[in-house]
């Protein structure tokens, strides 16, 4: 009688097991990639949309607050920073000469002793003026300093310390974001000669007119914000004599901070509020 031999089935899992592990790894990698993509998308939305919305709303509230404050202020109060304003009929000498220099421009300059006394410089981060550029629809506060967290990221335009105040001889130099955080200087590359740049303070309104544009220069080109603005990098760009200037600076190309875009203007008129 033959003995029955039982055969035990043997399952070979080598190849199938490797395929299963590979599939799980691929699926896990896909999930991680999708998650990373969503996080990056949210970051982009936050930077390009949410920060702009917050900054613009905050900047507009500050403009309205300044205008209410100026409306309530007594006309007998002292001048705000830089308000050594001349009468509207008097034009500043673009060469910065005065009557005592021996060089007459054909206009009698007002006596400095009859000018309103210039108030102390605004405190750090204080918003004290409003910048309007009708050509590109800008109306934003101007604050002292160019700190990102305290000024620029609020959607404000920042005033470079140790440059002139509005209406003063020299260079009233400003910086602003071109992208994100309100991006007030997003379209200043569209400005051209003759466009108006208006600066309003508590006591006066100053109208500058765009004169020159430097499309690109080094981020370290400090000459563009000097009292007589002139590029130290791009030969022949800027001015050679004293005057009443305004300088707008921002980053270029868009979404980078490698270079700077510069817009220069000259003071055309000033009038009391």
Summary, kept brief:
Helices cover 22% and strands 24% of the residues.
Describe it for me?
The structure is a single chain. The chain has 273 residues and is α+β, with helices and mostly antiparallel strands. It has a single domain (46-98, 121-272), classed as Sortase (Sortase, Chain: A). It is built from one helix and eight strands; from the N terminus they run αββββββββ. An eight-stranded mixed β-barrel has the order 1-2-3-4-7-8-6-5. Strand 1 (127-133) and strand 2 (138-144) form a beta hairpin. Residues 74-119 have low confidence and may be disordered.
Number of helices: 1
Q: What is the CA-CA span between the terminal residues?
A: 124 Å
Q: CATH H level: which superfamily? A: Sortase
Strand segment tally:
8
Helix content: 10-25%
Summary keywords:
alpha+beta, 8 strands, 1 helix, Sortase, Chain: A
List the helices and strands and how they pair.
Layout: H1 14-72, E1 127-133, E2 138-144, E3 157-159, E4 170-175, E5 196-200, E6 204-218, E7 244-252, E8 259-272
Parallel strand pairs: 2-3, 4-7
Antiparallel strand pairs: 1-2, 1-5, 3-4, 5-6, 6-8, 7-8
């Amino acid at each position: 009688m033959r003995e029955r031999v039982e055969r035990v089935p043997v399952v070979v899992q080598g190849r199938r097991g490797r395929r299963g592990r590979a599939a799980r790894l691929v699926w896990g990698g896909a999930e991680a990639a999708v998650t990373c993509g969503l996080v990056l998308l949210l970051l982009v939305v936050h930077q390009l949309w949410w920060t702009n919305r917050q900054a613009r709303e905050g900047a507009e509230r500050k403009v309205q607050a300044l205008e209410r404050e100026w409306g309530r202020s007594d006309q007998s109060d002292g001048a705000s920073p830089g308000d050594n304003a001349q009468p509207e009929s008097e034009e500043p000498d673009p060469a910065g000469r005065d009557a005592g220099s021996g060089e007459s421009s054909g206009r009698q300059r007002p006596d400095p002793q009859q000018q309103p006394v210039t108030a102390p410089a605004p405190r750090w981060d204080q918003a004290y003026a409003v910048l309007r550029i009708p050509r590109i629809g800008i109306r934003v506060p101007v604050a002292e300093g160019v700190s990102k967290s305290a000024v620029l990221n609020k959607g404000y335009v920042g005033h470079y310390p140790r440059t002139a105040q509005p209406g003063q001889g020299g260079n009233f130099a400003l910086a602003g974001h071109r992208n994100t955080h309100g991006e007030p200087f997003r379209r200043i590359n569209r400005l051209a000669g003759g466009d108006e740049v208006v600066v309003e303070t508590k006591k006066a309104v100053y109208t500058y007119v765009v004169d020159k544009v430097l499309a690109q220069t080094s981020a370290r080109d400090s000459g563009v914000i000097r009292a007589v603005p002139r590029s130290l990098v791009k030969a022949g760009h800027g001015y050679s004599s004293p005057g009443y200037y305004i300088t707008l600076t921002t980053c270029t190309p868009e979404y980078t901070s490698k270079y700077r875009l510069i817009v220069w203007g000259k003071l055309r008129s000033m009038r009391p509020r």
